[in-house]
Amino acid sequence: MKIDVTKKLPDKMxxxxxxxxxxxxxxxxxxxxxxxxxxxxxxxxxEGNFDFKYNTIKTLxxxxxxxxxxxxxxxxxxxxxxxxxxxxxxxxxxxRAAIQIKSKEVFLFFPYAMPFSDTAxxxxxxxxxxxxxxxxxxxxxxxxxxxxxxVHAVLDNKNTRHLNHGILEGRIYAEMTLLARDLVNxxxxxxxxxxxxxAAKQAALDYGFGIDIIxxxxxxxxxxxxxxxxxxxxxxxxxxxxxxxxxxxxxxSSIGLVGKGLTFDSGGYCIxxxxxxxxxxxxxxxxxxxxxxxxxxxxxxxxxxxxxIIAACENMISGSSYRPGDIIRSMAGKTIEVINTDAExxxxxxxxxxxxxxxxxxxxxxxxxxxxxxxMAALGPGISAVFTNDEEWMKKLREASEIxxxxxxxxxxxEEYREMLRSDVADLKNVGGPLAGAxxxxxFIREFVEGKPWIHIDIAGTAWRDxxxxxxxxxxxxxGVRLLISLFKLME
Length: 492
Ligand code: BES
Ligand code: MG
Ligand code: ZN
Fold this sequence. Notes:
The chain is α/β, with parallel strands linked by helices. It has two domains: 2-155, Leucine Aminopeptidase, subunit E, domain 1 (3-Layer(aba) Sandwich), CATH 3.40.220; 173-490, Aminopeptidase. 35% of the residues lie in helices and 21% in strands. The chain has helices spanning 35-46, 84-100, 118-133, 161-185, 193-207, 216-221, 225-231, 274-277, 285-299, 345-358, 373-379, 391-404, 437-446, 481-490; strands spanning 2-6, 15-21, 57-60, 70-77, 105-109, 150-154, 210-214, 239-246, 254-265, 305-315, 327-329, 335-337, 362-369, 384-388, 408-410, 428-429, 454-458, 464-465, 475-476. The strands form four sheets. The chain has an eight-stranded mixed sheet, with helices on both faces. Strands 1-6-5-2-4-3 form a six-stranded mixed sheet, with helices on one face. Helix 3 (118-133) links the parallel strand 5 (105-109) and strand 6. Helix 3 (118-133) runs parallel beside helix 4 (161-185), helix 9 packs across helix 14 and helix 12 crosses helix 14. The chain is elongated and about 80 Å long. The model has no long low-confidence stretch (mean pLDDT 95). It binds ligand BES, magnesium ion and zinc ion. Magnesium ion (MG) binds next to loops.
């Protein structure tokens, strides 16, 4: 999809989107609109047909004459409540309305100067358009539903440099989010640990970051037995994927980024119910976010050093699977009693976290994982749960959340719950019991960060949507990519 800024309007327009603010009622909004349209829309509004409330959308078909442009009216609501995030969602709604009437080309009109920078404006328009148009249609034989081929923002800026810069940047954020969505939406029969590693390698080639794929033999030699235990029941062997990007060579240290990469989670011998198992191809949502983020920071040339890791495997049932009651030794040396084979993510994560600190010398660690049903139950599909041992760093993440619009809510890493993980036979249990499941999972990972600054993002609820709305279509959301890019940008 082409997205640009334009002043000149063609004689014939396919679709016009009119953003309408509360205070702009009528004509003032239409300075650049051809008179015939302005008059007709004005009349329509004067008759009280439009309420200007945020996210009110009304489509008018051929208001002037047959063959004339279709007009989508969209309420901006009170100007003072208009944040970049609300604006981005609004653009997404407009584009959805345009898709519905099969628009090919859309002209976006603004009622007044938007209350944010030109760069931000270009950025969020682009994200709103590209994210709303996504659909995973690869496996459907019918020709894909058409989406607009071009969106023009009608603005009479003399200098379009900042707008264009924002558009360019927004395209990278959005496209790499869509890359993550594509990876997650691939079914587990296609997206095996090996395919995931290949996809990471392709991204490294396409966008320019370093990659190392470590094969099972070497994983075994490194004694990543917690990781290996989880993957042991699958016919598809595990892969350890290491990605490196050094945008600031003067600085020695790197930030460690860890993504949960279960290409499928059946639960293992503690098998899931069919309903709960259905979407478990999304259990590599953290890994996908990590790959998308690495690709994006390389494309953006951010001045940060990041080393990323994915312990990719599949949690299946077979004669070689791990069992409840097994005691396994993690790479760090701590032993773990397996209470529940469905609490597998944390086992893969702790070896990955240990590796990245021990072998890659990461100075801080951020992990992102579809880790607990408890996080999903607590915060639903719109908010990711976050945990930390470093409040200063968390402030930055909060800022990144506001910029990106990817919502987070911090839960406490409550010290007193640590004893829920105590085992009678090993150093730790892999499950803390029925209560505070998201917190005890975070506590479990914290045991392996060796006091380094650490943030944990639980995206179990947010990695997947059952309904399409705004920026999200049904299926993978690509959540984490825009949040993490924004975080790294703040850490430049
Ligand atoms: N992958 C799941 C968590 C999950 C649930 C992700 C729903 C996305 C949607 C994870 O491996 C899991 O099974 N967690 C268990 C842990 C429990 C056994 C302690 C859970 O949350 O039920
Ligand atoms: Mg599980
Ligand atoms: Zn899982």
